[in-house]
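Homework help board

Subject: predicted structure for assignment chain

Our instructor gave us this sequence and asked us to write out the predicted structure in token form, then describe one feature. I got the tokens but I'm not sure how to describe them. Can anyone check?
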Amino acid sequence: MTHPHGRRPIVVGVDPDPARRVALAWAADEAHRRRLPLRLVHAQGVPTAGYRTTEPHPSWEEWNASLHASGERALQEAVTFVEARHPSVEVSALLAEGNTAWVLREQAQDAAAVVLGSWHLTFQQELFTSAAVSLPVIAHARCPVVVVREAEHLTQQPPFFVVGVDGSRDSATAVDYAFDEAALRGAALRALYVWHPPLLGVLDEHAAEQECRRLLSETVAGRGAAHPDVELHHEVVHGHPVQALTEASEHALGLIVGTRGHGGFTGMLLGSVSQGVLHHARCPVIAVPHPDLEGE
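My token output:
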């Protein structure tokens, strides 16, 4: 449901662990900057097997009540955290039953953005935990999705954002969002086109690189007029997109990329690259869908 005053909220998934508050803090700060309401969402799931066979199993009702109480407690603690951090932010809480990814995909329908927490795990663990939530939400959300590492990272001064550009209209939308975000933070913007030569090479490497530079220039051209205070740097780099974007954004406030949404990625965020960026980036990753998706 859209907010009664017509303002789309920032939606954030609440982790039951009170030690994991980096994503919640990021979402609260963003709601404060954009003067938007903040909706805290906790998906309590459903009772599943997990007790040792030597112990008596609680009834479904007891187990469900325990999950509900735990979820309510996590939300109340999160509300208290946000109110202390930004008293002016209008905050609401939602306890929902069901799979976390499904719940957040539903909440994304009327959100200004969805913020998810993540933490550094092995690649195999990531596939079955945080990425199991973030990937389906990103693939289907009609709003930007922010994946925030729970481990703090060091940002560089002066602050900057990195935005990936590949010449598609999806990356153009990401550039627009990147300018907005940089302006809100008083940060610079680094637009990056990663050229990954094909295995068999190209006949004219210089011409191919010049084409990359043309596409990059066309994508960012004119967009700085609306944000003249944002310092823009753009460059073409060689290498694999995952490695190049990860290295470029190591000390950034965030890495912004465009997505096709509804099940797929385009350009640099295709297949393993999309998972690689989410897995390896140490700064928040902001996935921005093309606005045409809102009519689908």
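Reply (TA_rk): Your tokens look well-formed. For the description, you could write something like this. The beta strands are 10-13, 38-43, 91-96, 113-118, 145-149, 160-164, 188-195, 232-238, 254-259, 285-289. That's the kind of observation they're looking for.
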